[in-house]
Amino acid sequence: MGGIIYLDNNATTAVAPEVAEAMAPYLGERYFNPSSMYAPAGAVAGAVKEARAAVAALIGADAEGEIFFTSGATESNNWAIQGAARARPERRRLITTSVEHPAVREVMREMARLGWTVDELPVDRAGRLDVAAFVRALRPDTLLVSIMHANNETGVLFPVAELARIAKETDPGILVHTDATQSVGKLPVDLAGEFRHVDLLSCSGHKLHGPKGIGALFIRRGTPLRPLLLGGHQERGRRGGTENVPHIVGLGAAARLAAAHLGEAAQIAARRDRLEKAVLERIPWVEVNGAGAERLPNTLNLACHCIEGESILAQLDAQGICASSGSACTSGSLDPSHVLKAMHVPFTALHGSVRFSLSRLTTDAEIGRVIDVFPRIVEALRRLSPYWDVAAATPRFDAIGADGPTPA
Amino acid sequence: MAWAYSEKTKQLFMDAVHGKPGTHLGEIENPDGLGEHGSLVCGDALRFTFRVRRDEDDPRRDVITEARYLTFGCTSAIAASEALCTIIEEGGFTPIQALKIRNEDIVEFLEGLPSQKIHCSVMGAEALEAAVFNWAQRRGVDLEREGVTLHAKDEDEGRIVCQCFSVSEPYLRRKIRELNLRTIPEITAAVKAGGACQSCHHAPGGLQDLLDETWGPADGGPAAGAGEGTAEAGAEEPLSMFQLIKRIEGVVEREVRPQLQADGGDLEVVDIKEGPIVYCRLVGACAGCPGASTTLKLMVEQVLKDRVHERTRVIAV
Asked: What are phi and psi of A209, to 5 degrees?
């Protein structure tokens, strides 16, 4: 894929060559079912065990009994929420946030349709939660708290470790789940340390240079959770289905690599910060969504006033730059990002978001190229916009109306 | 999601953004016709202007010579604007003839649009109509006498059905007929209505009702609304909780805060729940103190256990 600049690593990451290499034998001669009795199958079971240990080591879990392989974070999230509800039918309340990934949000909405009460916590303009609102939401019949660690769109981090402690000190019977799909592999996550109050944690392979279609659910020992997929003794009887051995091995290799590269977060953050600074200096009427909150080191979500995100992406694409947007036009729906709406991003910029998400493979030269290209794209699109005054380099307040924003 | 745009659409978009000669980006000063459609809130909007070669004897024979647009929107919205201007200029139409351009013509010019993007072409046709209406006013042409029915006028005043995209009932009724829309997803694809919160789908007087009134009721009743759980009031006993809170507050005021304030700190009570559980945080000089949580547990919790209730728990937030 020579020539492209890939800055969409919150969507998916490049499969590391080491990962592909580790997987290859299990797509070839090592095809045995790890549950079978003969020696070659035993060797395959050993590879699954090693992979489990690698994932456990990355997040501070106990390999034998706390790491369960799934088809990805979507399944992990479904399992955590639905499995908890089935295990504790007497508890009827769920707590979540207004900015979760659809893999949590849609499950929560379904639970509400089925009769559970769901408290969706709001966020402020920077994407932060109000701890007092979280405390208010804790009730005697609260079943589960599901709050993401890092937001996929803005990179904003929630204080999950602290919220988990507050929930557990209030009532040890409340289960705490976190969707850590975006943070595992980018930041240290220690379930034996800071995250010791978290019961359930979802993660995914393809966000950390592993393959797609594989993930894991951490289930703390002793956590009441019914299975979601019935039909086999695999994964200690909690997740039926013959193990997806090549992908499990790939996830293990990716987890080992991620652990080895965790120290590079500061370099990634420095590149992101360079891009952020340059954009803010060169382009008027651009804001950073999530500015003021703690964020992932790799994510930069920009709100460009008076232009539309999909056309920005199309122009970036024409320059070989891959990014994404929360614009309505980039999704199947007509509604812009629920995350940005929950943050009350002004309507003049709600449709003009662009997300750049870096990886450890992103180079200084690539960032330099984006700094060169991006301001010109914004300028060109603003020339087309009926809401932009080219001469004054500001929005056309007469066209926008009295509800328009004030300069940032 | 990568949209399956035609080559033509992509090319028009790229040409427009790069200001290639022959493209129609811009705004005509003192135009003969000006029309707008969409809004910044909706996610796309078009400002359309045209100039005519005036016929001295009969303004009805004015011919559009130049058309320009400013568009806020996605790839297909910009390409559709470009298409509209090209069709008009190439056609040598009078404004009244130009009204015959339908959104289907724009889609055809673009060699197709994804169904979710059809509204981008509708936007162009609507802006054109508004511009022709504007021209007629300027030139003193009575469009109704020319056999043209204009919709924009009364539709502005109609009841809003889709609040998210400000789509009115008269407009929807007209579009349902004109575009032969038979289902809610078709309405949404064509004019965006109902595409966001969806609360107008099955509301009284909502999209389904409009469809039923236009085409007759479909088989089966409307789908049951998806009720979402709402928080009900807590079942605490107000009296005892009230007394408890009064006592906790009293002790905090008299015995806890003075001690902390003496050290330049303070205590903020965030919430009190049955248990009782007191959620609080140390502020001021105590906030960053490494012993903060110990202070809360040992000092604050102990005082409250002694003075209020032996089962009092303090949780730092």
From this structure: 65, 25
What is the percentage of chain B residues whose pLDDT exceeds 70?
89
* Residue in A112, A306, A350 nearest the CB of B228: A112
Task: Dump strand ranges (E) for B126-247.
Answer: 160-162, 167-168
- Nearest residue in B to A167, CA atom: B315
Q: What is the pLDDT of residues A389-405, one digit of tens each?
A: 999 999 998 887 755 55
Q: Which of A99, A29, A67, A1 is nearest to A248 (CA)?
A: A67
Residue A101 forms part of a structural domain: yes
Q: Which of A260, A253, A248 is nearest to A216 (CA)?
A: A248
Q: A 378-397 residues with CB below 8 A of B?
A: 380-381, 383-387
Which of A280, A283, A213 has its CA nearest to residue A251?
Answer: A213
Residue A308 sits at the chain B interface (C-beta within 8 Å)? yes
List B42, B85, B162, B286, catalytic entry: B42
Q: What are the CA-CA distances from residue A287 to residues A10, A352, A375 (Å)?
A: 20, 10, 13
The interaxial angle of helices B7-17 and A364-384, nearest 10 deg, is 90
Q: Quick one: A275 and A173 in the same domain?
A: no
Write the pLDDT tens digit of every residue in A174-210.
999 999 999 999 999 999 999 999 999 999 999 999 9
A164 lies in the same domain as A301? no
Q: What is the ipTM of this complex?
A: 0.78
Beta bridge partner(s), residue B53 = B63
- Name, in order, each residue with C-beta under 8 angstroms of A15's C-beta and a sequence gap of 6 or more: A206, A209, A210, A211, A250
Q: Is the pLDDT of residue B290 over 90?
A: no
Known active-site residue A329: yes
Given a contact cutoff of 8 angstroms between Cβ atoms, the answer to whether A96 and A118 are in contact is yes
Residue B147 falls inside a structural domain: no
pLDDT at residue A186, as a whole number: 97
pLDDT, residue B152, reads 55
> Does A407 map to a domain?
no
If you measure CA to CA, which chain B residue comes closest to A92?
B229
Nearest CA in chain B to A315: B14
Looking at the structure, do residues A280 and A244 belong to the same domain, yes or no?
no
Pairing state of beta strands A117-121 and A67-70?
unpaired
CATH at residue A342: 3.90.1150.10
> Look-up: residue for tokens 């949000």?
A105
Question: In this predicted structure, what is the pLDDT of residue A51?
Answer: 98
Last residue of a domain, one of A235, A261, A287: A261
Evaluate whether residue A405 is within a structural domain.
no
Least confident residue range of A110-124, B71-85, B162-176:
B162-176
- Look at residue A35 and tell me if it is in a domain: yes
The average pLDDT across B23-27 equals 91
